[in-house]
Design goal:
Layout lengths: L1 H20 L3 E9 L5 E3 L4 E11 L5 E8 L5 E8 L2 E10 L5 E12 L3 E15 L45 E4 L2 E4 L44 E6 L2 E6 L205 H4 L7 H24 L1
């Protein structure tokens, strides 16, 4: 797992470096040796190299500089990590041991060890290595004082104080020498400490302090004719203090908003925020309703007019007299958009507002599902046989059993044990009554004595029908009880 994480991190680093490098660039702006375009040095001398580089889109940055003499072996100097912008670095290199004139090639590189993005500059004839017999650090060809004694400091011409005559023949000067440099102090007629050759104000009164040019305050005019400044003088130095009571960088004479910072103007409308009633509205309340544009709820209309006090100004309220709505919605202004049964249909258009399953009563009414278990297109609520696709009422035989009458005698087969009762008057003894007479009904004909009345010839036919009805009623009663 740890190996996978390291691999992912490495891949991410590579990707970020690749993305960053897509628009990255290094540009060498300038370079010098020993502060100049060329440097004359002795063999093996230390040379100071200055290089300035601009980086854009750098990832990770300018970290190293590669250098060589005349295409020789490269050397690499690592730096701090410089990112986007212009940066400069100074580092030391060692001059060649062999006298001669050398080009110095410098290459700015993106990564430590001198890899990645690069940009180069070549300093032609940058290093001149020359002989130096007296080892004073000045090439013999340019040494005006050969044979300098060992240990003595020299000037740029290779001369030490022991090799120079610093007397300039001027009685006004005081001649001296330090590290091969002569010093000749000039005369000072007014005794103000500034030699006459450099005194811009000769004849300074005794006791008055002066500036570096030999001038005292009595010899100067410090008024700079600038209304923004307060003019004064101390020890010959004029002061033109910038008057800015609120310290905002804008002088009091030109301050647009005294006591506030004139440089802070969030909406860039030319009015400093401290004096701007609408500091974040460059139009400064365009609809003039007293509400700044950046917090104006209803642009172009008066935010103060809100008839229903719902927080939405009338100009942007499509239901200005309904505090609960800003738009008519489905139900219109003044009517709630409530959905009591949370079925997604507003109560105002829901005919079953308390039934989440229905928006209209349907066959069974609100609160009852219009289910059709047997698929006979009659809802269960209206179907006495909800599981019998062929019946909606039990009939003679009950739900789940056909009310068919195979023998056409008007009695359902389920209660007619002889399906062929109507056989044309033959003596077939189909009903097994062993009498040889006509087939009898499953319900025996009553005898005349049991009637309680005189039984006519038609009574024998009617009684079986009465019996069938009684049996059917009992059967239906049993079905309903079982349900």
């Amino acid at each position: 797992m740890r190996t996978k994480i390291h691999f992912c991190l490495a891949a991410l680093g590579f990707y970020l470096a690749w993305v960053g490098a897509a628009d990255a660039a290094l540009n060498v702006e300038s370079a010098f040796v020993n502060g100049a375009a060329t440097a004359t040095v002795t063999p093996g001398a230390t040379v100071s190299v200055y290089i300035q580089v601009t980086g854009s889109g750098i990832a990770p940055g300018w970290r190293a500089t590669q250098w060589n003499f005349d295409g020789g072996s490269n050397a690499c100097v690592n730096h701090d990590d410089f990112s986007t912008g212009t940066h400069d670095v100074t580092f030391d290199i060692t001059a060649p041991e062999m006298p001669g004139t050398y080009d110095l090639n410098l290459t700015a590189r993106q990564f430590d060890g001198c890899s990645g993005l690069s940009d180069s500059i070549s300093l032609v004839d940058a290093i001149v290595v020359c002989a130096d017999d007296d080892t004073d650090g000045i090439c013999d060809a340019g040494d005006l004082c050969l044979g300098t004694p060992g240990g003595e400091s020299v000037n740029g011409d290779g001369c030490s104080c022991s090799q120079l005559n610093c007397d300039d023949g001027d009685a006004c000067t005081s001649d001296s020498c330090l590290d091969g440099v002569c010093s000749n102090d000039v005369a000072d007629e007014d005794g103000d400490g500034v030699c006459d050759a450099y005194d811009s104000c000769l004849g300074t009164p005794d006791g008055e302090s002066i500036n570096g040019d030999g001038c005292s305050c009595s010899q100067l005019i410090c008024d700079d004719n600038d209304a923004c400044t307060a003019d004064s003088c101390t020890d010959g130095v004029c002061s033109n203090a910038f008057e800015d009571a609120d310290s905002d960088g804008v002088c009091d004479a030109s301050d647009l908003c005294p006591g506030e910072d004139d440089t802070i103007d969030a909406d860039s409308d030319g009015i400093p925020d401290g004096c701007d009633k609408c500091p974040n509205d460059p139009d400064n309340d365009l609809d003039a309703d007293g509400v700044c544009g950046d917090v104006d709820v209803c642009h172009g209309f008066d935010d103060n007019l809100d008839a229903d006090s719902d927080g939405t100004p009338d100009g942007c309220d499509d239901c200005p007299n309904d505090a609960t709505k800003t738009a008519p919605g489905v139900c219109g202004c003044g009517v709630s958009e409530d959905d009591a049964d949370a079925d997604g249909v507003e109560d105002c258009i829901d005919n079953c507002p308390a039934d989440p399953e229905k928006v209209d009563p349907g066959d069974c009414g609100c609160g009852e599902v219009d289910m059709d278990s047997d698929g006979d297109e009659i809802a269960d609520c209206n179907d006495e046989c909800p599981d019998d696709i062929n019946k909606v009422v039990p009939g003679a035989c009950g739900c789940g059993e056909s009310d068919g009458d195979g023998d056409g005698n008007g009695v359902a087969d389920c209660i007619d044990e002889a399906e062929s009762n109507n056989n044309g008057g033959g003596n077939d003894n189909a009903n097994g009554n062993d009498s040889g007479n006509e087939n009898e009904s499953p319900v025996p004909s009553p005898n005349p004595e049991a009637c309680g009345v005189t039984c006519g010839p038609g009574m024998g036919t009617m009684m079986p029908l009465v019996g069938l009805c009684l049996v059917g009623m009992r059967r239906r009663h049993r079905v309903r009880r079982s349900r």
